[in-house]
Structure formats: structure tokens, C-alpha cells
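HUMAN: Please help interpret these C-alpha cells:
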Amino acid sequence: MQNKFMELIEQSSMKATVPKFEIGDTVDVHVRILEGEKERIQIFNGVVIARSGTKTREMFVVRRIVQGEGVERKFPLHSPRIADVTVKRSGKVRRAKLYYLRGLSGKAVRLKERFPASSATAAEAKAAKAERRAARSQRKVEKAERAAKIKADTAAAKSAGATKADAAPSGDQAS
């Protein structure tokens, strides 16, 4: 009985649209900052190294390097202080938590890009991969055809050379 009430309360405080991002993505988090009566938006950009929790308690951790020091911030996903989360690039990772990045520095911190084109969606990336595969198989077929043609040409040249060799000695003996 209490769980239903909790779910109703949680539903009221959850955002209608949740931004789509994954671990390893480089994101810009637009945070609302109140300074007296004024409100402004500050952008915190970095790599998402962890996500945890569910529903209203869902959090994500963003890490960036500022003047040689690593800075991490933990954001509640459904917070009204979070104006927007935009994905700049998608990183290819095989871990749920990227805490190992804390021990790395310099170029070692960089992650491989999941989709080479930063604006490509998963479907576009899959289509591009299928296209590259088809082109590669087409090149293999063309290479095999060229090899077969060269083989046939060399065989024809050998047989033509053999007939010339047979004809040449008989012509030399006659003179």
C-alpha cells in the first residue's frame, strides 16, 4: 500500500523527458544557478563515469580536468536545477563504472569514440557499418576476379610461348 503512494509522489517529481546518455559519453550539463534574485545557467562539461539509482533517486557522475586537477560532480537526473544534458560525443566503453579514469592522466584519459560522426545515431552507425562491410566484400570479389584474369592471361601466354618455341626450332633448322 505504501509503495503505491511512494510511486505517485515520485511520479509527480520526475521529469517528463529524460535526456538519453550513457556511461563514457562526453556531456554538457546545464545547471541552473541562483545568485540572489537572478538565475543563470552554468555549463559543466565532462565524461559521465557512473550512473546509479532508479526513478527519482537516479544520479550520474561527470568528471572533467580543470587546470590539471580532476573535478567530479554528482547530479540528480530529475533535479529541477538540471536544465539540460546534451551529448557532445559518445565514448566506447566496456564498464558500468569508469572509476579507473581517476588514476589516468593526459592522453590516456581519452576514450575511443563509439560513433565516428558525432551527430550519428545508432541506426546511422549501423547502416554505415553495413555499407563498409558490403564495400569490403565487393573489393574482395573484384580482387579475386583480377587474380583469376591474370592467372588466365599467364596461362595463355605460356601456351602461346610454347607453340612459338615449338615453331621456332623447326624454322631454324630449315635455314
